[in-house]
Amino acid sequence: MLEKFRRAKEAEIHVLRQMAADETLPKPLSMQRPSLRRALLSRGPGAVIAEYKRASPSKGLINAAWTPRQAAEGYARAGAAALSVLTEEVHFQGSLDFLPVMAEPGLPVLRKDFLLHPLQVLQTAATPASALLLIARMLTLAELEAMLVACRDHGLEAVVEVFDTTDLAKAKAAAASIIQVNNRDLDKLTTGLRISEELIEHRASGEVWISASGMHSAEDMRRMQGVGYDGLLIGTRLMQETDPGIALTKLLEEMNGA
């Protein structure tokens, strides 16, 4: 599956290379970006990163009626610590144009996409995003290190996503400081929280950890909170509702025993 996503990004990277050669790439924004790390540490364990995801390869169209502005306002009002935004266009119906709108409430925004080249980091720096996602399995160690350097150079935080111990070893070798465990089995396209419980045993001092995918209830969220996850990324579970903001309010109330 990841190889399919890699191929889908080839045209985008080609365009960015041409823009770089022509010196027409948008310039990085000069701004103080809210910190995802600080937001999770101040609100966690169990701080929610609420995701705006219109579609996915496994679910098809999820919720195209809810706009990015409604998402930003609804999630912020519900108590999200940060926002995640799918920007991949081919398979997730996302757009870079969602990022400025989602940043309006002032919460840290994570760009979630398949980012493989430092020019995509520069592209992200031209938006108000605070952080971007790097999938360890899609990058060699040298490529991951280069992407992390590019993030630091442009004032962006990097969330390095892992699926197993091999991915985690690569993330740690690259000195990733924000690690996201994806609970999805890429072969079976199923989810289970056991991998999050297993991998967090390898957490080192100074690292911030996020659990993503497969949390369907407040009980699931408390389970991940209980083993020490600073952040919980909730996407499809919310976006399947008519009003994901109200759905998040209810989940947080249940999780916190209100």
From TrEMBL:
The Indole-3-glycerol phosphate synthase domain, residue ranges: 4-248
Pfam family, one: IGPS
CDD domains per record: IGPS
Keyword Amino-acid biosynthesis assigned: yes
Pathway: Amino-acid biosynthesis; L-tryptophan biosynthesis; L-tryptophan from chorismate: step 4/5
Keywords: Amino-acid biosynthesis, Aromatic amino acid biosynthesis, Decarboxylase, Lyase, Tryptophan biosynthesis
InterPro entries reported in the protein's UniProt record: Aldolase_TIM, Indole-3-glycerol_P_synth, Indole-3-glycerol_P_synth_dom, Indole-3-GlycerolPSynthase_CS, RibuloseP-bd_barrel
GO molecular function: indole-3-glycerol-phosphate synthase activity; phosphoribosylanthranilate isomerase activity
One biological process term in Gene Ontology: L-tryptophan biosynthetic process
EC supergroup of this enzyme: lyase
Catalytic reactions of this protein: 1-(2-carboxyphenylamino)-1-deoxy-D-ribulose 5-phosphate + H(+) = (1S,2R)-1-C-(indol-3-yl)glycerol 3-phosphate + CO2 + H2O
Enzyme Commission number(s) from the entry: 4.1.1.48
Presence of the UniProt keyword Lyase in the record: yes
Matches recorded under PROSITE patterns: IGPS (PS00614)
Name of the featured protein: indole-3-glycerol-phosphate synthase
